[in-house]
Amino acid sequence: MSEVLISTKGNVLEIILDRPDKGNALTPVMAEAITAALKSLSPETRVVLMKANGPDFCTGRSAAMPAPGTRATALDLRNAISDPVLDFYEVLREIPVPFITAVQGKAAGVGCAIAALADVAIAADGATFQVPEMNHDIAPTLVLNALADRISRAALARLVFTRDVIPAAEAKVLGLIGITAPADGLEAEVARVVGQLEKNSVPTVRGIKAFISMSPETSFASRKELAALINCVATAEKFR
Which of 2, 65, 194, 221 has a 20 to 30 A CA-CA distance from 16? Predict the structure, then answer.
């Protein structure tokens, strides 16, 4: 039985985390399947949608630590623990079209990071967000790397040091997510947002995604040039 369901519906790549009995905790096999799908997107894809079966979106990562008594170097641990997750986050960052997440229940650790990496994270009003790693004396630098440019320093420090469970309304204020909806209206709100994007052309959605991804790291002059270039290229498609 697959732990992640991946399918194409029209111009949407839909990814469903399907490990509900384990809180949809991410496994290496799941990450590899998602990565493979994202690296082979159809040129006609307008949207990537990630959601989950069961009560929770994603409660973290399946245990990756070596068994007690195992001898391992820092490089061994990096190869086994750090790099796979950091590479997975990088793949999510580099999705060339809008990345939408539908979040219900718990989004903790990796789940919190995935939600924050989305272009539009839509959460049920009962969803919660947490970075609990320090409860286990784990330095959560992997999640920090994903969140560092998504929310303010104060919000980031609060999440990590307090390990507080953050309700959806507060997560929206902090900038972790973009939209909240009643639990019974989550599916409809996701369909609304995805449906809007499906109406756009590939040059438009890819151009805007490129600008949103690149603009924070560029100067005003560079942003001006980038804005003009993307605008004229996307618009030119209408006159071919």
Answer: 65
